[in-house]
Amino acid sequence: MNKNNLNIAFAWLAGLALAGIIILFVSHTEPQPDTKPNATQSVFSLLSASTRSTRTDTFCALAVGPDNSCLGKSQALCSKDLEMAQIAWQYFENNYNPETGLYNAADKYPSTTMWDTGSALAATIAAHDFGIIDDKTFDERIRTMFKTLNSMELFNKEAPNKVYHTIKGEMVDYRNQPTPDGIGVSTLDLARLISWLNTLSCMHPKYAYPAQQVIKRWDMTRLISKGQMYGLYRDPVSKNISVVQEGRLGYEQYAGKIFRELGYDQRVSAVYDNEYRETINIYDVPIAYDRRDPRDLGAYNYVVTESYAMDAIENGIDAENRPLLDNIYKVQKRRWEETGIVTAVSEDNIDQKPYFLYNTIFTAGLPWNTTTDKGVRYDNLKTTSIKAAMSMALLYPDDPYSKELAYTISSAYDPERGWYSGIYESGGGYNKAITANTNGIIMSLLLYKKYGEFAPVCKRCQRSLKMDVSTPQTCDVCTTE
What sequence ranges are listed for the domain DUF3131 (predicted)? Predict the structure, then answer.
């Protein structure tokens, strides 16, 4: 072997030795098998491995309800409260119509008004908040109701008819018979629905837009005018439409404040101290009433508990309505003290003819008058109203008379059907008429107990309904025939 060949051989041997040393070093510094990347891992997984340990399931965090801390610290309901709510909700379970999302105004009778739809909406909101129904049931019922409210035929293409069939969703009369032309519009009823659309939008902001769309369908041109509310009435014979002023002291202010919050001029209707107010002393308690003559305008002023209680829990108590509400409570307490009759009066369905009565503190010039809307007296059918008794008991919980009220009506229910409307004062037993309004008001009273006055709370949350009322809509057929 010559010298050149010898040098080449040594070079090869040196290279092989160096390679062996490198291989030996690498084998001792490789990752252990349990930390070595698997051959099937994707490039994306290798790139994201450093962040995987800190990732959370974002849908769990995103799919929760809104932050309702602005509603304030809620007051816990006791077991009796929840039992009352369960009984009231049973009415709505029995009277729900999945075809339309509407609830019957009276037990098993497939008819409703916008007033009773507002009461049913209040009950649905409360039932969800109390955990009686779950999220899915709540959403299904609310969305189905909205579908109907946003598509139902309107009276004269202006606003909802006074009455609708709850299964078919069509306009009907008070006998629940189809009326293709409708019978008219109650603006007071619309206010009741708006109040609870506002609370729904406040507690569940995802429904604010569909709630606005419901109201935007309505042409309010003839319904709100000169600071007051007006209703529409179709004469069943001539078919002509009349525009009539609507609302008397009490209910008028309850509804007027609701429209005022939407931006409408309600300088007369939203104020108790207006030109139509008068005062009468009953048991030495000053009671405000409306002096407008029913012989001229065809509508009585019924001084009852319901309008003042609803104004308090929905619109809020202020310097103007506080003394009026106090006197409504005080005069009924005074009658109990003087006569021994547990007194809580309001308008109610009853379970016998004439089937609906106004049991009043004052109307048509008479104290403690029980009458029909035509002025026919039925003093033998006076009742202790369940919704009125519960309203006063919750608004004045520290007064001894409230305990008497709560005790008196505590068993006035059917656990399978809901709360009765009342108890006959004369010893005639329970007034077993069962309605959406009574049971809806009970649910709303318990929601008030938990959160407080609804409209002020929603304003604090900045979640009140916002409507542009500067340019009212124009319907297709608005002229009075």
Answer: 83-451
